[in-house]
Each structure stands twice: as structure tokens, then as C-alpha cells.
Design a protein that fits this description.
Chain A: GO terms for molecular function: protein serine/threonine kinase activity. The complex is a heterodimer of chains A (312) and B (271). Chain A has 312 residues and is an alpha/beta fold. Chain A contains nine helices and twelve strands. In chain B, strands 3-2-4-5-1-6 form a six-stranded parallel beta sheet, sandwiched between helices. In chain B, strands 7, 8, 9, 10 and 11 form a five-stranded mixed beta sheet that branches. The chains are: A alpha/beta (312), B alpha/beta (271). The interface between A and B is medium-sized, with 20 and 21 residues.
Chain lengths: 312, 271
């Protein structure tokens, strides 16, 4: 029998992101218990945030060592929508980073089983980029009995590591963040001829224009629509003299598009990257994405167009 | 113009014609309301010429209802402007006007020279504008503060924000930082275009109050990421000066932006 190396060659200095899918109790125990024990033996903070089944098994297997975990929490209460959940998670990570040189986390995003929780895979995808320098090992646990095949497929495509039986190994289905995000965003169809289009040079004009369009669609969401579109217009006007703002409805969905002739987005996944610490740094795309129900990006060296989708 | 006691207008002008177009109807309205009128500007002779078309100019000058004085005479230069003394002087002028049977004091002042007192001078001007605004909230005074448009956005940004009524060419007024209530309060729409001005104005008016400064956000109709960043920056600068900026009564829609900077908007108000 080969020796189990729960974190393989991980040196504790950068981000490792593994997805582990389990069916039987023993499978889970064999993966998570050595992972936790290794962390405790190395003096690392070990955090566990998981559903009831995982917590019950770990309590039985770890015995008194459960009390040595830095966090041992129920995942069921964590979901507040993708952006809020990641923002809260991000604050916890920054707090850890301030006190620990390295740490490890076994986390079960139980909300992936919910229809409104599936967007979490987008954040998992982008984490590979925005957390690349954070010194921790994230072992993401997925219950095959609870999660549909489409979610397990997204899990594989968003985690660079999977479990090889005695050590983590590269996941063959893994995709880069951009590729994954593009594949889940709505298809970029041609703008319909009925869309109303305005060319604007100031954010305040954009607010008036978008507000008028949203009022005719659904007054209750005017605030969200105006705020989200405003931030995109501000970004567009940073790189171009004017922004083209168009909007149309598609069934119950309002689509707002902001286009510019700037040099293209350096990173089109920024809508999923949590705000930095301190007042500097952009937050407009993060805010716009969090207010909208979905988004799509068409960016190239001659310009950028972003669509935000709001469902009634 | 429809201005009444309590109104405090920031008016940027491009040239002499623009200046006259603002000042003449303003003073004529005061004449009709029976107010004491004071026009302040760089050069007294030029001001008198500008007033030539004003109905009753000579009679009002003779009776003392209209006074024309130079900026240097009324205000000390920017380096020496004492905000509290200047506001006290205006308060006395209001009392004197009322004692003479006028209905109030109406001042049109080209305060452009006050901006030229360097960085400290600008700080004193901001403190002064805020104290003057609070004064106008409580006595029978109406003011038109005139600033040359050529001063540019960096200088005019904070100054404009400190006036409840604003006129800057074609631009629609957006935000106002008021000290008329028990707490400072921010009104209207705060977006990226006023963010820098807001940091400057807020820091300047709050810095002199060690301890806690409360900023009421309940009348804010719009706040964007840049506006929230401005509040975060101002709070940071003030903290270094031992002033704790406490935001209260943020509208629900603004809370999201504030949260992006770890700012707490206090107990929220709807909308």
C-alpha cells in the first residue's frame, strides 16, 4: 500500500484547489481525516465548513481533535448569493492571512445543490486566479448523492486538482477561469432591432436614460439596474470618449448593454473578483455583477460590450 | 430667480457678461423684496459699471440700501480669512439690515480671490462656506457666491458641494454637503464626478472637530462606488487627525456600495 500524502507536493506558499467528490462515508473519511491530521501536526490552522453528514463523520473520526480545528462550522447557513458569500469568505481569508503563514480548509459548498447556488462554480473558477498567491490548501468536498451530474461537471472544470488515491493529481477536465466563465454566460446573440440605443458622455445622462428604460419594465428594480449600468458606464468613460447604452426586454428579462471603443478589458472575469482591502482598486464590475442576475462580456482590442440581465 | 432668505447659491461665471447676468436679476429681486443689498467683487469701479442697468441703482446707493465693496475690504485675503469672524460679521450685517427696517440681507460676492490663498486658504474657505451656509439656514440672509469658472474642477468641486443651490453652466447640480442640521448631511446624487471634491470638502469641514463627526446620508438619492470610496478615503484621513467619521441613516441602496469599503451606514432608511 502506497503512503498517503494528503496535500502532495504542496509547499504551503501558494493556493492549491482540489475538488473531491464522495459517495460512501469511508471514502470521505479516508480523504478528509488524514488531510486534517496532517495540518494539525504541522501546526497549521485547519478549518472545516461543511454539511451535517460531513460534520457528523468528522466528529466521530477525529474525536477530541475536533476541538483543535480553527473553525468547525455548518455550511448550510453560509449561502447569501454568490457575491455576498464570497465577500464574507474573502474577509475571513484576509483575517487569516494576517495571522497565519499558511492554513488549510476543507469546505463543502452545500448550496451547489440549490438552483440559485450553481453560480458558485463561477467564483470557484475565478478563485484560481484571484487567490493564486494566498498560502492555503482548499479541499472542496462534493456529495455525489446530492449533486446533479451537471454540477459535478462544473466542479471538475473549475478545480485544477482532484484526488488520485494517494495524493492530489491534476484534474484533466480543468479549464482556465476565462474559458469556464465564457461557457456559462448567456450566448452573445445579436442585439435586437427593437433595442433603444443612446450614446452618452456622462454618467448622469446614463442614469437618466437607464432609469427611464427600467421604470417602464419593472419599477421595483430601477435602483439595481441604474446602479449596475452606471458603474459600467463609468468604466467605459475611463477608456473612451463616449459609451453606447442600449436596452431591451426579452420575455421577463431586461437586458442592458454598455459598449465602448476602448482597448478591451484586461480581465473579463473581474465581476467575480471580490473587492480589495483598503479604498484603492476597482469594484464597479463586482458591484454590477452582484446586482444583475447574469452578465455576458464581448471584449476585444477594438472595444468592449457588457450585457447585464435582470429577471423579473 | 425665486431666491429667498436661506438660499445659498454657488454660481460659476465665465466672463463679465456672465457675471452681470447672474448679479443683476439677483440684486433686483432683493430690491423688490426690500432687502439690504451688498455686492462684493475685485474692483469697486468695475462693479459700479456692471450695475448700470440695475433699476434704482443710484437711489439705492444714495439711501444706503445698496452697498458695493471690494473683496479685499470685506474679506481678509485668503491667507488670513477667519471663517468664524467672517460669519459673525455677516450675522451683524443681517441684524443691522433688519434694524434699519429691511427684510433681510442679500449678498452677491465674487469670492474667487479667496481661493487663491494656497492650500491652507482653500481649507479656510471650505470651513467658511460651511459655516456661512449654516448661518443662512438660521437668519434672513440670501447669498450668491460667484466663482470664476477658470478656477477648474479641482478647486470648484469642494466649493460647489458646500452650497445647497448650484449653477455651473449647463451642468445639473448633484450633491450638497450641508451643516445646517445637528449633524453634517449629504444630499442628492454623489457620483464619480464629485468624488474628489467630496473628500476635500468633508475632510476640511470635519477636521476641526476632534472626536466623532456624524454624517447623515438619509437624503442621498444616489451613491456610486467612487462616492463610497470618497467617504472611505475621507474617513481614513480624518482618523489620522483623531476624528471618527460615523455614517448614519444610509439609504438601503447606498449600503451596498458602502459595504464594498467595509463602511457601515448605520441604521438604514428605505429607498
Amino acid at each position: 500500500m502506497s503512503r498517503v500524502r494528503p496535500t502532495g507536493d504542496w509547499d504551503g506558499r501558494s493556493f492549491a484547489h482540489e475538488a473531491f467528490a464522495f459517495s460512501a462515508d469511508q471514502e470521505l473519511v479516508d480523504r478528509v481525516v488524514p488531510f486534517a491530521v496532517e495540518g494539525l501536526s504541522r501546526g497549521e490552522p485547519v478549518l472545516v465548513v461543511a454539511g451535517e453528514r460531513v460534520r457528523t463523520l468528522l466528529t466521530q473520526e477525529l474525536g477530541a481533535d475536533v476541538r483543535r480545528l480553527a473553525t468547525f462550522a455548518a455550511a448550510e447557513t453560509w449561502w447569501q448569493g454568490g457575491h455576498r458569500t464570497l465577500h464574507a469568505y474573502d474577509r475571513d481569508l484576509r483575517a487569516l492571512q494576517a495571522v497565519a503563514p499558511t492554513w488549510r480548509l476543507a469546505a463543502e459548498p452545500t448550496w451547489l445543490a440549490r438552483d440559485d447556488g450553481r453560480e458558485w462554480s463561477r467564483f470557484e473558477a475565478v478563485a484560481n486566479r484571484c487567490y493564486a498567491d494566498l498560502p492555503y490548501y482548499s479541499l472542496c468536498l462534493h456529495d455525489r448523492q446530492r449533486l446533479p451530474a451537471s454540477v459535478l461537471d462544473a466542479v471538475a472544470r473549475t478545480h485544477p486538482l482532484t484526488w488520485g488515491g494517494s495524493a492530489p493529481v491534476p484534474e484533466p477536465a480543468y479549464e482556465g477561469p476565462e474559458q469556464f466563465i465564457r461557457s456559462v454566460h448567456p450566448v452573445w446573440a445579436q442585439r435586437p432591432a427593437r433595442a433603444s440605443v443612446a450614446v452618452l458622455t456622462t454618467p448622469r445622462e446614463a442614469r437618466r436614460t437607464v432609469s427611464a428604460a427600467a421604470l417602464g419594465w419593472w419599477p421595483a428594480r430601477v435602483g439595481d439596474v441604474v446602479q449596475a449600468a452606471h458603474e459600467l458606464v463609468v468604466n467605459a468613460l475611463r477608456v473612451a470618449a463616449f459609451a453606447e447604452v442600449s436596452s431591451w426586454t426579452d420575455g421577463d428579462t431586461l437586458v442592458v448593454e454598455v459598449a465602448d471603443s476602448g482597448p478591451g478589458l484586461p480581465d473579463e472575469t473581474l465581476g467575480y473578483v471580490p473587492p480589495p482591502v483598503g479604498p484603492d482598486g476597482g469594484r464597479g464590475m463586482w458591484l454590477a455583477w452582484s446586482l444583475a442576475d447574469d452578465a455576458a462580456v464581448d471584449s476585444h482590442p477594438a472595444g468592449t460590450a457588457i450585457r447585464l440581465f435582470f429577471h423579473r | 430667480m425665486g431666491l429667498r432668505p436661506g438660499d445659498h447659491v454657488c454660481w460659476t461665471f465665465v466672463d463679465a457678461a456672465d457675471f452681470r447676468a447672474a448679479v443683476l436679476p439677483f440684486l433686483d429681486e432683493g430690491r423688490r423684496l426690500g432687502e439690504h443689498l451688498l455686492l462684493v467683487g475685485a474692483s469697486r469701479p468695475e462693479l459700479l459699471r456692471a450695475l448700470a442697468p440695475l433699476p434704482g441703482r443710484d437711489e439705492m446707493l444714495a439711501s444706503g440700501q445698496l452697498e458695493v465693496r471690494s473683496t479685499a475690504e470685506v474679506y481678509a485675503s485668503g491667507e488670513q480669512l477667519s471663517p468664524a469672524e467672517q460669519v459673525a460679521a455677516y450675522r451683524s450685517l443681517v441684524d443691522a439690515a433688519l434694524a434699519r427696517g429691511r427684510t433681510g440681507l442679500r449678498v452677491a460676492a465674487d469670492v474667487t480671490p479667496l481661493v487663491r490663498g494656497g492650500d491652507d486658504g482653500r481649507t479656510r474657505l471650505h470651513v467658511y462656506e460651511q459655516l456661512a451656509d449654516a448661518l443662512m439656514g438660521s437668519v434672513a440672509m440670501t447669498a450668491l457666491c460667484l466663482y470664476e469658472a477658470s478656477l477648474g474642477a479641482e478647486v470648484l468641486g469642494p466649493v460647489t458641494l458646500l452650497h445647497p443651490d448650484q449653477h455651473c453652466g449647463e451642468e445639473e447640480p448633484l450633491a450638497h454637503l450641508s451643516g445646517r442640521g445637528r449633524a453634517l448631511s449629504l444630499h442628492g446624487e454623489v457620483d464619480v464626478t464629485q468624488a474628489d471634491g467630496l473628500v476635500r470638502a468633508l475632510v476640511d469641514v470635519a477636521r476641526g472637530t476632534p472626536g466623532e463627526v456624524v454624517l447623515d446620508l438619509s437624503d442621498l438619492r444616489f451613491l456610486d462606488v467612487a462616492g463610497a470610496r470618497a467617504l472611505a478615503r475621507a474617513a481614513q484621513v480624518l482618523r489620522a487627525a483623531d476624528v471618527q467619521l460615523r455614517l448614519v441613516r444610509a439609504p438601503r441602496t447606498a449600503v451596498r456600495c458602502l459595504g464594498l469599503f467595509g463602511l457601515d451606514g448605520g441604521e438604514t432608511v428605505p429607498a
